[in-house]
Amino acid sequence: LNECRLIVDEKIEIEFNELSNKIKEKFSEIRVKIIGNCHDIEGVASNIYLDWIEEKLKEAYNSDLANGLGNLVARVAKLCETHNISYDSTTNGGNLWEDVEPITQDYKFNEALNQIWGAIKGIDAYINKEKPWEQETEKAKQTLSNILNGTSELGIDSLLNIAYCLQPFLPETAEKILKQFSGQIKAGPSLFPRIV
User: Fold this and answer.
1) Rounded Cα–Cα distance for residues 142 and 120 (Å)
2) Strands of the 12-16 sheet, one edge to the other
3) pLDDT string in tens for the chain (196-residue length)
4) Rg of the chain's alpha carbons, rounded to an integer?
5) Left if phi > 0, otherwise alpha if psi is -120 to 50, otherwise beta: which for 92?
6) Phi and psi dihedrals of 6, rounded to 5?
7) Which H helix or E strand runs over 113?
8) Nearest Cα residue to 71 out of 127, 10, 137
9) Residue 113 and residue 155: Cα distance in Å, rounded?
10) Is the Cα dihedral 165, 169, 171, 177 positive or negative?
11) How far from chain centre, in Å, is Cα 9?
12) Residue 183: left (phi > 0), alpha (psi -120 to 50), or beta?
């Protein structure tokens, strides 16, 4: 792609024709921009060539990907490994995908990502509340089961459903998560190393 359009506050459209190899290397998998007042992006964020936006991209990457999704996956995988948990299930995205799919088909990617990130924050809040690292083994296994399977009773979605729903936006990451949580669960390398 040689061109990228950025919609700011859904009123101003800015076109960029330059490629930045530096940004492309760091953000090659980001398909939709989810930072600041920017609501939508057509194309791949790595095609943006502006120095002022690099800092915003770093902030979004570190907060939403490294500290958000990446940290959640790492925490859950490590706890599952500690408690020797295996998981043999497939997912079709469940209720989350039923909410996200029509929004995605209408090209409302920001709304779809807001739904997905809401589910991520829901699991994160549940983990922080339950503190499975402090629980007895059986209680910790139940907490982790709730995270892996989701539970409408507690208002949390399945981590695997989240990964499934991320496929249109972060296909490689989604595949890594689905593989990591299939069979004997082990902690793995960071999905999103922090950028300094």
Assistant:
1) 19
2) 12-16, 4-8, 38-42
3) 333 444 443 333 333 333 344 444 444 444 344 443 343 444 444 444 445 567 777 888 888 888 899 999 999 999 999 999 988 777 777 888 889 999 999 999 989 999 999 999 999 999 999 999 999 999 999 999 999 888 877 778 889 999 999 999 999 999 999 999 988 999 999 998 888 8
4) 18
5) alpha
6) -120, 125
7) helix 109-130
8) 127
9) 18
10) negative
11) 23
12) left
- Please give the helix or strand (H or E) that residue 179 lies within, else none: helix 171-180
| Pairing state between β 38-42 and 183-184 | unpaired
Mutual orientation of helices 137-149 and 109-130 as an angle, nearest 10°?
170
Amino acid at 71: N
d(CA 41, CA 16): 12
The pTM score is 0.69
Tokens of 97: 């995908």
What are the phi and psi torsion angles at 194 (to 5°)? -60, 145
